[in-house]
């Protein structure tokens, strides 16, 4: 499995912050109490994002999957290079 893009559904996010506990290099909570992705250039987004835009030198797929699985509302979606949704299944 190789994760290519990911997104956060802001309507589903309840700010439980489990994703941040698992992978704080990638996720943070914004001013509205919702999770966002940390991007290069000090930006953030919850929109569908290529992992290359994340503000990390290399993305650990296993940790990213763990973070998505830790979300109580399944607000984090992961997609592979063909655009197929990997998680939630
Ligand atoms: S774990 Fe889910 S609900 Fe909690 S902050 Fe992250 S995306 Fe939001």
Description:
It is a single chain. The protein is α+β, with helices and mostly antiparallel strands and 89 residues long. The protein has a single domain (5-83), classed as 2-Layer Sandwich (Alpha-Beta Plaits), CATH 3.30.70. The chain has 2 helices and 7 strands. It has helices at 18-22, 61-70, and strands at residues 5-8, 27-29, 35-39, 43-45, 49-50, 76-79, 85-87. The chain has a 4-stranded antiparallel sheet, with helices on one face. It has a 3-stranded antiparallel sheet with strand order 2-3-4, with no helix packed on it. It is globular. The protein starts with a strand and ends with a strand. The mean pLDDT is 97. The protein binds iron/sulfur cluster.
Topology diagram in text:
Blueprint: E1 5-8, H1 18-22, E2 27-29, E3 35-39, E4 43-45, E5 49-50, H2 61-70, E6 76-79, E7 85-87
Antiparallel strand pairs: 1-5, 1-6, 2-3, 3-4, 6-7
Bound molecules: iron/sulfur cluster.
Residues 8, 13-19, 35, 70-73, 75-76 line the site of iron/sulfur cluster.
